[in-house]
Amino acid sequence: MTSILAYCRPGYEADTAQEITERAAILGIYGYCTFDSGQGFINFKVQNHTDADRLGLELRVSSTIFARQLIVAVAELEDLDTADRISPIVEAVASFRSDHWQNGLLFVEHADTEEGKDLAKFCRKFAVPLRQSLRKHRLLTFKEKPELRAVHVFFCRTDKALVGYSYPDCRSEFANGICRLKFPSSAPSRSTLKLEEAILTMLTAAQQQSVFRAGGRAVDLGACPGGWTYQLVQRGQFVEAVDNGSIDDALMASGQVEHFAADGFTYRPQFGRVDLLVCDMIEQPERVAKLMGDWLVKGWAEHAIFNLKLPMKRRYETVTTAIDGLQKRLQNISGNFNLNHRHLYHDRDEITVTVIRQ
C-alpha cells in the first residue's frame, strides 16, 4: 500500500492527520492515517499508487496548515543491513523510475524529535555515498535540479527508512521541511524569527517588495519588547508599536518607532490607515481574527500578518473556524486578498496568518 508521508511538529500528528484526510477527500482520494503521538510524522495510506501520486501532484505543502513536507512514499525498508543500506534504497528508487520525470534532488531526512536529531549526523554522511550510487545507476541527475522531482529517504532509525519522492511545485524546498534561521544578535526577542520566517516563506518576492516598500507605515499590536517591530524596522518601515510594556531602547533610537502604551483592541492608527498590521498578542484566536478583520474591512490596514494562539485540543477545528469567519468578512469588501495560514517552524502553539491585498 502506497502512502503520503507528512512531516510535522511532534505532538501535532493528530491535527496533521485530520487535515490531510480532509484535503485528500476534497480531491476524491480516500484512505486512513497511521501515527504514534510525538513521532513527528504521519502516514496517509491509500489503496493504489495512482491516488498517492495524484495527491503528491495536487496538494502543495504551502497550502496546508500543519504539514512541513509531503512525499509519496513507495517503500518502507526495515532491518536494513548496516553493511549495505544503499542497495535496497537504490532498488526502491528504481521502482518509481518514470518516463515523464527525472529525479533532480536527494533529501536524506529525519523527524524533528530527539531521536531524529540523533540521526542528523548519520543522515548527512549517508547522503554522500547514496547520491553517488543513485547517479551511477542513472536514478539522479549529475547536477542538482530543483525544477525536477526529488528523491526522499526518511530514516526512522538507522535500520529503518521510508523511500519516496516529491514534485517541485508541491514540496518544501527545505530539508526536513524546516526553514532554519539565525537569530539576529541585535533583535530584542526570539519571536522575531516567527515574523521573518513568515515573510520569507509565505510571501512571494513580489509581495515582499509591495508590502515592505521604503518608507511604509506599520502598526505592531502587542509589540513588547519589539521582536516583530525589529523585522519591520530592518525593512525600512515606520512603526507604531502598541503595548503597555516597554520597547527595546535600540529600536526606539532608530527614529522609525513610536511607542503607544495602549490596549491593542482599542488602538487606532495615528494617520487613519497603515500599509501593514502585524500582531502577536496572546489572546483567543477568534477574538484576534475578528480584530484583524476589523482593520482590513474598515480600511485601517492594507495588509496583515498575525498569529493565532492554539488551544491544547481541537486545534484544527479552532483554526478553520477562525479563518473561515475571516474569509467571509473579506469577501464583502472590494479587492482580492491572498490569505495563507501555516504552522511555521519557529511558531510554538500558534499559527501564522498572512492576508495580502492583491
From TrEMBL:
Domain Ribosomal RNA large subunit methyltransferase M THUMP-like: 84-167
InterPro entries: RlmM_FDX, RlmM_THUMP-like, RNA_MeTrfase_FtsJ_dom, rRNA_MeTrfase_M, SAM-dependent_MTases_sf
Enzyme class: transferase
Pfam family membership, one: RLMM_N
Domain of life, per lineage: Bacteria
Main location: cytoplasm
Reactions catalysed: cytidine(2498) in 23S rRNA + S-adenosyl-L-methionine = 2'-O-methylcytidine(2498) in 23S rRNA + S-adenosyl-L-homocysteine + H(+)
Binding site for S-adenosyl-L-methionine: 191, 224-227, 243, 263, 280
Keywords linked to the UniProt accession: Cytoplasm, Methyltransferase, rRNA processing, S-adenosyl-L-methionine, Transferase
Subcellular location: Cytoplasm
Gene3D superfamilies, sorted: 3.30.2300.20, 3.30.70.2810, Vaccinia Virus protein VP39 (3.40.50.150)
SUPFAM superfamilies linked to this entry: S-adenosyl-L-methionine-dependent methyltransferases
Gene Ontology BP annotations: methylation; rRNA processing
Gene Ontology molecular function: S-adenosylmethionine-dependent methyltransferase activity
Active site: 309 (proton acceptor)
E.C. numbers: 2.1.1.186
Subunit structure: Monomer.
Family statement drawn from the similarity comment of this UniProt entry: Belongs to the class I-like SAM-binding methyltransferase superfamily. RNA methyltransferase RlmE family. RlmM subfamily.
Name listed for the protein in its UniProt record: Ribosomal RNA large subunit methyltransferase M
Organism, scientific name: Alteromonas pelagimontana
